[in-house]
Fold each of these.
Amino acid sequence: MASETDRTLKELFALANKVGNRRYHRLTQQDFGDYRSFDYWRYINGDSECGTTEASRTWVRDNSDRHCPICGEQYSQNNGRSIDHKLPRAQYPWLSLDFRNLWVICYQCNQEKGERHWYEYEHYIFTRHPARYEDIVFFRPRHLLKSLKQG
Ligand SMILES: [Zn+2]
């Protein structure tokens, strides 16, 4: 049964990658608008220099606790909360402001994750930080990957 689940999962990731790549190479005005929609939700005037919006700060507060779910470190002045796109918005612009695709992690972990696709990221964690692997799998964007398959 476990191997059946793994196989399905692998197919889902492969498909998500395919969908993402296809869209990525044919970016439309709509995609660009979707991409920017995150900036306008997150930052005043859509500009990171202007500070974060009340709405996004509330969301961050409601969707995080005291510790980063990846490294387990407590958020601090030097390493604060940041919003990450599980599936990178450069590749999946239409998921930029899909809240199933967002999670709060610390700034350092966000930097480390970079623009990796979720699947690559799981592999990266598995090899670099095996102790964190179980936690990462827990946060896997299952519903999102399934919806990509249906859409
Ligand atoms: Zn962290």
Amino acid sequence: MVSQLPLHPCTGREAAAAKAAGAVPYAGGTDLMVRRAAARRTGQEPPLVFLDRVATFRGITALDGALRIGSLTTMAELCSHPATPGLLGAACATVGSPALRNAATIGGNICTASPAGDSLPALYALDAEVELCGVDTNRRLPIDRLIIAPGQTALKPDELLAAIIVSTDTADRFYYRKVSPRLANALAKVSLAVAATVHDQVLLEMRIAFGAVGPTVIRCSEIERQCRNRSLADLAQSARRLADLAAETIRPIDDLRSSAAYRRTVAGNLLETCLHSLCAPTT
Ligand SMILES: Cc1cc2nc3c(=O)[nH]c(=O)nc-3n(C[C@H](O)[C@H](O)[C@H](O)COP(=O)(O)OP(=O)(O)OC[C@H]3O[C@@H](n4cnc5c(N)ncnc54)[C@H](O)[C@@H]3O)c2cc1C
């Protein structure tokens, strides 16, 4: 019975037990409260379990070669923390508006599992992992195995997202761009997050993730393979061809925010711009 469990728990295990009993996790509430409005009118809203007292879901901690980001970390905290990877900080800075970023958490952004969720392409490009907290056990998954479909995750009924783990020593160049109708409070029509490692004018590795152009974020592994170990000059010359390949790889749809054709064209153009910008000499 959910009513016999603490709905403002202090541990991840207690919070997971409340979720297993039917309570809905509340982090920043920015997504949840919009969606609960309809249920509220019919009086059929399940109870909430508030996560804010769960200390293990908080904070940004340096691990060995990695960063552990508690799921309750807000977008504003990520934007201002000196250890936040540049790519993730750039993506989180585009979420909503300043007021929204003070409440919205990265955990809520992930668990909403929207293809247009702004932190997701960056997390895919960083090869992030997630730490899940259950009643009896914890487990870790790559981010792309957590997000299954629009609005659906692989979380079990008794599991919560505790933290996100990102490596701190992967990429040395990044590119992030969100295309939306206006700068604040607008979801992406298309977004692109790229993390790259360059040494001696050679691109050693590149991870490319598009948002809002498929049911989940789309990684472009074939293009990544074609880019690996190529000189920047050579890569710049192939930028248009690779951009066309990206436009074929994605799976955009027509919806309220945009058309599939627009998304396909813009996604290709974004990758072309990104490749030219990553290949440009640094001062
Ligand atoms: C005006 C407005 C503008 C917005 N603009 C953007 C935007 O530009 N970009 C964008 O990506 N999003 C945007 N959003 C959506 C939303 O603000 C973000 O997705 C936000 O990051 C959600 O975080 P939250 O902490 O508020 O989540 P909540 O609303 O608390 O939760 C969201 C969902 O995740 C679940 N959940 C939360 N935390 C956990 C956890 N630790 N474990 C398991 N489940 C959990 C909740 O049960 C709920 O189903 C906008 C929303 C509004 C209202």
